[in-house]
Structures are given as C-alpha cells and as structure tokens.
Specification:
This protein is an all-alpha fold. 74% of the residues lie in helices and 0% in strands. The N and C termini lie far apart (44 Å).
Length: 216
C-alpha cells in the first residue's frame, strides 16, 4: 500500500500546518451536514503531529461538528425537498434514506447518538432528524454526547499515549485502514438492527422493508 503511505505522510505534513485548526473546524462543520469525508482522519493525524494539543483538537472537532449538525437539522427542517434530498443523493446515500428515516422516526435520539458516535454518516441522521422535526433538545443532547464521546476519547488517548500510538499506526497503517472500513460496515449493520423489540421468533425489522419516504 505505497500510495496509502504516501498519502499518510502528505496529510501528516498538512496536519501540522499553522492553519490546521481552522481546517479541522471547517471540515468538522461541513461533514455534519453535507461533506462526504469525516474529520476523524485529520483529527487523528493532528493529534499524532502534536499530541500535547490532542484534547484541544478534539474539543474543536466536537464543537464544530455539533454546530454543523445544527445546519444539517436546519436543512432537513426547512429545505429538505429543495436541498436536503439533493445533498443526500450527491453523497451517495439515497438508498439508505428511507431506512434511516424509519429508524429516526421510531428511535429518535438513539439513532442520532449512534450516527454521531460511529463511522456512520452523521450528516444523514442530522438532515433526517430535521425533516422529521425531531425534538431539537433531544437532537442536541444526542449529538453532543455522541460527538464528544468519539472525538474526546481520541483526544485523551493521544494526549496520554501520543508517541506509542504514533509508532503503532506507523507500523500497522494498512491493517488499521481495513479495520476502519469493517467498523463502517458494522455501524450500518447496527443501525438496521435498531428498534428490535419484536415478538419472539420475529426476525424481520419493519424498517428494512421501507423503500420510500411515503411509507413512513
């Protein structure tokens, strides 16, 4: 994976740039509403470059990601048909939209928290939550809890174990990339299993059969 090593080294240089914090805030903000690439890699690389500032970086990422989630909520609430559906299609998540809508409608804050805490596309959950007019306070609590958990855990770990973690990633970068992809898949599987309070012997998730918005 020579190309991956080259990209890793290139990004490491940019993560240590004097404007890296602004870029981190920017990407964390737009990722929560429409940008397809999550801020996790940039956060991790910045923490690797300057582990003594890891908690600061994680806090920046948390704050701006939650603010971006508010933008996503607003898009879903006010301009879902005009903008929200187009954005979801542009990032290739149209097929997942009906299922996620069903789960958010049934399980609300729990789905938002899972999307905020896992590699699942948080942006999809924020837009859908706004479209379904989910209670805003519940949305904010779930967003803050999920985003703070995932980002602050990274910050604390790098603050304490910065150098050893960097050595480990340098050595096992390829394998860690594979693990990340597997976790994304596991996250999608978890969301399809939400709301599993079915009768014994019933293994069918009602949301799995939803194929359009009209069926919600």
């Amino acid at each position: 994976m020579g190309w991956l090593r080259a990209l890793y080294n290139w990004t490491m240089e940019k993560a240590a740039h004097r404007h890296a914090e602004r870029w981190l805030a920017f990407f964390a903000f737009i990722e929560s509403s429409f940008f397809p690439i999550p801020p996790h890699p940039l956060l991790g690389l910045m923490c690797l470059a300057q582990p003594e500032k890891a908690i600061r970086f994680a806090l920046i990422c948390t704050i701006f990601s939650v603010l971006g989630g508010v933008l996503g909520y607003a898009i879903g609430y006010f301009v879902f048909e005009a903008v929200g559906q187009w954005l979801i299609g542009a990032i290739g998540l149209t097929d997942a939209l009906p299922t996620v809508q069903c789960h958010v409608d049934r399980d609300g804050a729990w789905v938002v928290f899972i999307a905020a805490f896992t590699p699942l596309p948080f942006k999809l959950a924020t837009i859908v939550a706004g479209f379904l007019q989910m209670n805003f306070l519940s949305f904010m609590i779930a967003s803050i809890a999920g985003r703070a958990a995932i980002f602050m855990i990274v910050g604390v770990l790098f603050q304490i174990f910065g150098a050893p973690i960097k050595s480990f990633i340098d050595k096992y970068l390829g394998w860690l990339t594979i693990v990340f992809v597997v976790l994304v898949g596991a996250g999608f599987l978890a969301i399809t299993q939400l709301g599993g309070g079915h009768d014994e012997g019933d293994n069918i998730d009602p949301c799995a059969n939803v194929t359009s918005v009209e069926k919600l």
